[in-house]
Design brief:
The protein has 162 residues and is an alpha+beta fold. The protein contains three helices and six strands.
Length: 162
């Protein structure tokens, strides 16, 4: 017998950055600045990310395109991998993602591969939640309490252990 099931993702929408703590505003500003340094000559779609570890380290990243499109890397993974290369045992408390040139008023969410990478980081850090902030300069911010909420019915290492 089939059973209908639904998935609900809850998030908070802040109308402006001013509604957030100073620490979250700092992350969003750092992500915005990182986006302006992105290398995106093909798409002209600049993305910046900034994360803060629970130890207080702030690490930024941006998208880096390549004429061979699969060879590029997104801002979220650039920041995440930079942080983990500096401290492999780091715990990421919050990551902010900003796209300065959004059309409309809806913040951009991470792509599928970045969602998987963020989920993997939560698993890597003992499932300690990583907050995700997605913002538009001078506009709204969506806040998720954990990166895993970006990827319901996700795939993780538990499927590999038999």
């Amino acid at each position: 017998m089939s059973t209908p099931t639904s998935i609900t993702v809850s998030y908070i929408t802040h109308e402006t950055w001013a509604e957030l703590t100073a620490a979250d505003q700092e992350l969003l500003k750092a992500a915005h600045a990182a986006a302006l340094r992105a290398y995106a000559p093909y798409s002209n779609f600049l993305v910046g990310a900034a994360l803060r570890t629970t130890e207080g380290a702030l690490v930024t990243g941006n998208n880096q395109e390549n004429a061979s499109f699969p060879a590029g890397i997104c801002a979220e993974r650039t920041a995440l991998h930079a942080a983990m290369s500096l401290d492999p045992k780091a715990v990421i408390g919050t990551i902010a993602v900003v796209v300065p040139s959004v059309t409309g008023t809806r913040p951009v969410s991470p792509c599928g591969i970045c969602r998987q990478a963020l989920l993997e980081q939560e698993v890597r850090q003992g499932r300690k939640p990583m907050r995700v902030l997605m913002g538009i300069p001078n506009g709204p911010v969506h806040e998720l309490q954990r990166a895993g909420d970006l990827l319901p019915l996700s795939f993780d290492a538990s499927f590999l252990n038999s």
